[in-house]
Design a protein that fits this description.
Heat Shock Protein 90, 11 strands, 20% strand, 3 domains, 416 residues
């Protein structure tokens, strides 16, 4: 979830809860105020009845008006009735229906006789007013929430525009290119600080990259020179005369060690180039033809170990470096041969979007770290970088390479 969406959700939920609580309190307050006003009107009517009795010595005529009703009843209990308010139904003669009402019960003394006086008023106007206020409040609340949502969506989107601009440039940042991160101009201090930090980081990364690249190139060059000299001296040594069996074995070991060192140096340099995306000869490759050519190149090795090859190749094209595609297939084919047994078999299946290479071999699953650098079995004569290079090539182009051990077969699958 994006930050703006999370902020909008929290803001709207908080605003809704606050406005709901405020609306309830507002409704109760208005209801209390209008009820108090209605009670004051009932008290005024009570005072008028008492004044009429004191002035004229008789009760006023019972009244049954549109929104008010007054009734009298002799109090035979002898107890003085204290003023009391309560809610009651009010029958509207003109509408012929009951309405919500508010009543007051009190007593008045006339010539020694106590009378119970009931004054009732209709609350329909107050209820209508409360409903009107409630509807207006609800409309204002909805309008406020909608306005808040629109403001958050458009205003915040505009405010966060420099951040997303900087984020997009950081995603597109290429350490091998010289393009600088040019952030969008903004008046927000936090975004300016972020832009300055991004530029400073890019500068440091490029500097470290240049130093590392220079070191790698120099180390590679300096390493290849003595290796070439050693090879040359060994060739010259072999031409000087005959050697004993022991001497020949020592020289052969030296040749083997130098060969591994050269191959290791080349593999590490290749990994560095792949990681830094320095190989850019991207083109459309006919994988059916490339896999078929690779089968012919490894044909002698298949026959040497007595391996049976089963292949099912369908037309499929992939966009990548042909040089890296060749290395990828070389590593997978060599791995299938190196870790097979004499008389075993290899299955190669190329379909639209995937390549599967499975082979017989040891009847146990390989270590799940086989794609890590220098991960190899004790009996392996490789450098331990073949599958690491293969995984790095796949990661460079967004491919997925996986390993499974099924039915005593080692299966490598690439999903393009």
């Amino acid at each position: 979830m994006k930050l703006a969406q999370r902020y909008n959700r929290a803001n709207l939920i908080t605003s809704f809860i606050i406005l709901t609580i405020t609306g309830v309190i507002y409704y109760i307050a208005i209801h209390f105020i209008l009820t108090g006003k209605l009670d004051k009107d009932l008290v005024i009517e009570e005072k008028e009845i008492e004044a009429y009795v004191n002035n004229y010595g008789k009760l006023p005529s019972p009244g049954d008006f549109l929104h008010q009703k007054v009734t009298y009843q002799k109090n035979t209990s002898g107890k003085i009735i204290e003023r009391n308010f309560f809610y009651d139904d009010f029958y509207n003669e003109s509408e012929k229906e009951n309405e919500p009402g508010r009543s007051l019960i009190t007593s008045v003394d006339l010539n020694g006789q106590n009378y119970q006086v009931t004054i009732s008023k209709s609350r329909v106007e107050s209820e209508d007013l409360i409903q009107l206020i409630f509807m207006i409040t609800l409309a204002v609340t909805i309008l406020l929430l909608v306005s808040l949502l629109l403001i958050n969506r458009f205003v915040l989107q505009r405010i966060w525009s420099p951040f997303y601009s900087t984020l997009g440039m950081m995603k597109a940042f290429n350490i091998a290119q010289k393009e600088e991160i040019k952030p969008q101009v903004t008046k927000i201090d936090e975004f300016n600080e972020l832009n300055d930090s991004a530029n400073a980081m890019a500068t440091r990364v490029r500097k470290d990259y240049r130093e590392l690249k220079s070191f790698t190139d120099n180390a590679s060059h300096e390493m290849m020179t003595p290796l070439a000299i050693i090879n040359s001296k060994l060739d010259s040594l072999l031409q000087t005369g005959t050697f004993s069996v022991a001497q020949g074995s020592i020289i052969e070991d030296i040749y083997t060690a130098i060969g591994k060192l050269i191959k290791l140096n080349q593999s590490l340099l290749l990994l560095a180039k792949i990681e830094n995306n320095l190989i850019s000869d991207v083109q459309n490759i006919d994988m059916q033809q490339l896999v078929g050519d690779k089968v012919l190149q490894f044909q002698e090795l298949f026959e040497k170990d007595g391996l049976t090859l089963n292949q099912e190749l369908q037309p499929f094209e992939v966009k990548m470096s042909k040089y890296l595609a060749d290395i990828l297939l070389n590593n997978l084919f060599a791995n299938a041969i190196r870790h097979n047994h004499s008389g075993g078999n290899i299955d190669i299946i190329l379909q639209a979007g995937s390549l599967t290479i499975s082979n017989t071999g040891k009847s146990e699953e390989l270590d799940n770290q086989l794609f890590e650098r220098f991960s190899k079995s004790a009996s392996s004569e490789g450098t331990g970088l073949g599958l690491a290079i293969s995984k790095q090539i796949c990661a460079l182009y967004g491919f997925i390479i996986s390993y499974q051990f099924q039915e005593n077969r080692h299966r490598f699958l690439i999903r393009f």
